[in-house]
Write a structure and sequence with these properties.
disordered N terminus; seven-stranded mixed beta sheet; Elongation Factor Tu (Ef-tu), domain 3; alpha+beta; Alpha-Beta Plaits; 27 helices; eight-stranded antiparallel beta sheet; globular
Length: 819
């Protein structure tokens, strides 16, 4: 396997996408445990193998996308686990670009959430083939106490809601209403819950269990199934057709036990006791197994019946274990093994690199518009030949090598293998600027990439038809080492064939965030990555010790290279500005600077800044226009000055510092005359909390100027879902306070929504009797919200603040004694 000589038809590149805490990393653990044995089955779901950073293990959330190669039957599967938190959405973009298919996870209890919309859109834009995985089925049994029929209706609703989202993307309706994307669809009217035939089969739906691209799983207990597995079993038992059973196991189909036929509800004669086949033959046995294993009064007869019917080899000591979960997992891991179910679905439903690249080529390398004179020329034909190599996934010996680097990531030098694929010693001590080695996370789209090969690094602005861009946007580099990524480890390889994912050493100094690699200069760069949000949260940072400024600058440079979403700039006042997606992302970046890239002590006194400063608090001005009219009276201009107008302007001091200062103050005065207002960034906030903590949660929201727009109780669940808008300036520490006040029972997800004007006048002075009674007599500046925000920002920036300060106060004394 060292040289990836396998046929591309036996390769699958997939990523796991989901909302935060919906079970991505737990699922990845079980897939790894079921394939290459890097994770013991008993540790799957607890080890979090793909979360290789200490911070990821501590917070129990994924922050960096990571890859691992799995061997399933005779297939090679490159699995990429991605974060679910919105602050790390850039990692989702990098994972999606290198993949051909996506496992979209949805929690069957929580349902579709805001990040589910985002990852479905990411998969749609990148032209990935998705499969739907409905996770945490066990919570419907022992947590919500749903009956099989109630659980079926809930699963039916989730599948149709996800299909509605994808249908909206297909029709491009999501472009017309941004708010509906953020808040999510209002849902589907199911009508009577006891009338499942409300839904008819729609061949246009993306996800259909009968097609085999929907899996029902419990990643924590390690089991899962597609309807095809039950269809094969019951087709053998009743002597029917497997295809007919597959179609019947989802939707309004019923089994007539007398005639042994699949019929409609009308043919069954109605009645409240009849159940759809999915409920009768799939969910009810699952419920009985859980009840038999977990309930105190539940007998073991159901477990023994399942073991006998499906010919399972379960040890008696596992069934008699004092922990009922052990018996349950022992039966399910042999009856419905999770890894076999998911990877079989991947092989069956997701395309190989050859089919995928022919479909995705319009996204990867869109056709370029050129002038008619170039359309038929050889200069234009050469890049088009490269494009065809990518489209056909050409792996012939004469094929051109084309690859795409989605991100650069840092690995400690001591984790880099000291020996190459042929057991040769590799020295990396003199190649890096720090204790970190930068590797390129890449996918080979054409040809073969070999160790020691010279390669062209193309930036996004490179144009093969324009010679002038060669020097600016093209560099030549050498591939020093190639590694197969194994989650927390690296395996050296000598070469990588088209259609595979690999880590490349030797390109760290030549790539900023992402790039296209090509063995020829006649190649168009791949299209840029699409990010769900922009890095809008900015902080100014500086070292505690000014002597560490050099180390900080070096660390910022390395961080900017390693993180695909970070923006590092220098303001006009000389401050070093770090822009990220949100508070958690900022914390991750500062931690990387302190412990990896800079290793200096930094001062997170972060405040929002911009390139220009307004008169209120030196923040960016927005929504304004200045009209400047220059006047020079002819009587004051001599004839020789008209011949040399630049000399005339210099003589009159039009561009001197004094005049620039006057113009600046004039502009600031003009803004103040037009009654300026503050404009603050707003987060869309999705909160989930139990009913007993609802009042406590509203108390936390009230202290942070939150505007609630929607509140609803999740069906068949004790959780309330609240949608609200939260000012970004009030978001620092919000998640921690919410968890502390609600004992960890409430969670919040924040995503940038819009910019909103604060309509309060910061210079308001009460004049009428009613205003004086409410705000005071006007002897001091009214402390409304806008004024408080301005004063707070000005104090942080060291700007003057209008306030009364008593310096020498004395208490009035009297000699009178009152009895």
């Amino acid at each position: 396997m060292g040289d990836f000589d396998l046929d591309c038809k036996k390769v699958r590149n997939i990523c796991i996408l989901a909302h935060v805490d919906h079970g991505k990393t737990t699922l990845a653990d079980h897939l790894i445990a079921g394939c290459n044995g890097a994770v013991h089955p008993k540790q799957a779901g607890k080890l979090r193998f793909m979360d290789y950073l200490d911070e990821e293990q501590r917070r129990a959330i994924t922050m960096k996308s990571s890859s691992i190669g799995l061997k399933f039957k005779d297939y090679d599967i490159n699995l990429i686990d991605s974060p679910g938190h919105m602050d790390f959405c850039s990692e989702v973009s990098t994972a999606a670009r290198l993949s051909d298919g996506a496992l979209v996870l949805v929690d069957s209890v929580e349902g579709v959430h805001i990040q589910t919309h985002a990852v479905l859109r990411q998969a749609w834009v990148e032209k990935l083939t998705p499969c739907l995985v409905l996770n945490k089925i066990d919570r419907l049994i022992y947590e919500l106490k749903l009956t099989p029929m109630e659980a079926y209706n809930r699963l039916l609703r989730i599948v149709h809601e996800v299909n509605n989202i994808v249908s909206g993307y297909k029709s491009e309706k999501y472009l017309s209403d941004v708010d509906s994307i953020l808040a999510g669809p209002s849902g589907v009217d199911l009508g009577d819950d006891e009338n499942p035939e409300f839904f008819e089969d729609d061949e246009e739906d993306t996800f259909q269990p009968q097609k085999g691209n929907v899996a029902f799983v419990c990643a924590l207990d390690g089991w899962g199934f597609c309807v095809g597995e039950f269809a094969e079993f019951y087709a053998k038992k009743f002597g029917g057709n497997v295809t007919s059973f597959k179609k019947a196991f989802w939707g309004p189909r019923y089994f007539n036990s007398k005639t042994k036929m699949i019929v409609s509800k009308k043919a069954m004669g109605g009645g409240s006791n009849i159940r759809p086949m999915f409920v009768q033959f799939v969910l009810e046995p699952l419920w009985q197994v859980y009840q038999g294993a977990l309930e105190p009064d539940g007998g073991k007869a159901m477990l023994e019946k399942v073991i006998k019917n499906f010919n399972l080899s379960v040890l008696p000591r596992e069934l008699q274990h004092k922990d009922p979960k052990t018996a349950l997992q022992a039966v399910f891991s042999r009856w419905l093994p999770l890894s076999n179910t998911i990877l079989s679905m991947v092989v069956r439903c997701m395309p190989d690199p050859i089919d995928a690249q022919s479909f995705r080529i319009s996204r990867l390398l869109p056709k370029r518009e050129v002038v008619d004179q170039m359309a038929g020329s050889e200069v234009f034909a050469r890049p088009e030949h490269v494009r065809r190599c990518v489209e056909t996934c050409d792996s012939s010996p004469e094929a051109l090598t084309v690859a795409f680097v989605s991100k650069i990531f840092a690995v400690p030098l001591n984790l880099i293998p000291a020996r190459g694929p042929n057991d040769e010693i590799i020295d990396t001590s003199s190649e890096e600027e720090s204790d970190e080695c930068f590797l390129a996370f890449a996918r080979i789209f054409s040809g073969v990439l070999t160790m020691g090969q010279k390669i062209n690094v193309l930036s996004a602005l490179y144009d093969p038809l324009n010679v002038e861009t060669t020097q600016k946007h093209l560099q030549e580099a050498e591939v020093r080492s190639l590694y197969l990524m194994m989650g927390q480890g690296l395996k050296p390889v000598a070469s990588v064939k088209t259609g595979n994912v690999v880590a490349i050493r030797g390109l760290g100094h030549h790539i900023l965030k992402s790039a296209t690699l090509s063995s020829t200069k006649d190649c168009w760069p791949f299209s840029s990555l699409m990010f769900q949000v922009s890095p809008m949260l900015k902080v100014a940072i500086e070292p505690s010790d000014p002597a560490d400024m050099g180390a900080l600058l070096k660390g910022l440079k390395l961080l900017n290279r390693a993180d695909p979403f970070v923006e590092v700039t220098v303001s006009s006042r000389g401050e070093h500005i770090l822009a990220a997606a949100g508070e958690v992302h900022i914390e991750r970046c500062i931690k990387d600077l302190r412990e990896i890239f800079a290793k200096v002590s930094l001062e997170l006194s972060g405040f929002q800044i911009a390139t220009s400063a307004g008169p209120l608090c030196d923040e960016p001005m927005w929504g304004l226009a200045f009209i400047v009219e220059a006047h020079i009276r002819p009587s004051e201009v001599q004839s020789n000055e008209l011949e040399n107008p630049q000399q005339s302007l210099d003589q009159y001091g039009m561009f001197t510092g004094q005049v620039m200062t006057v113009v600046k103050e004039a502009c600031r005065a003009a803004v103040l005359q037009k009654r300026p207002r503050l404009v603050e960034a707003m987060y869309f906030c999705e909160l989930n909390t139990p009913a007993e903590y609802l009042g406590t949660m509203y108390g936390v929201l009230g202290r942070r100027r939150v505007r609630v727009v929607k509140e609803e109780m999740q069906e068949s669940s004790p959780l309330f879902t609240v949608h609200a808008y939260l000012p970004v300036s009030e978001s620092f520490g919000f998640a921690d306070e919410l968890r502390n006040k609600t004992s960890g029972s409430s969670s919040a997800l924040l995503v940038l929504s819009h910019w909103e004007a604060l309509m309060e006048d910061p210079f308001f002075v009460p004049k009428t009797e009613e205003e004086i009674e409410e705000f005071g007599d006007g002897s001091s500046v009214p402390q409304n919200t806008a004024r408080k925000l301005i004063d707070a920002v000005r104090r942080r920036k060291g700007l003057p603040v209008e306030e009364k300060v008593v310096q020498h106060a004395t208490k009035q004394r009297t000699l009178a004694r009152k009895v």
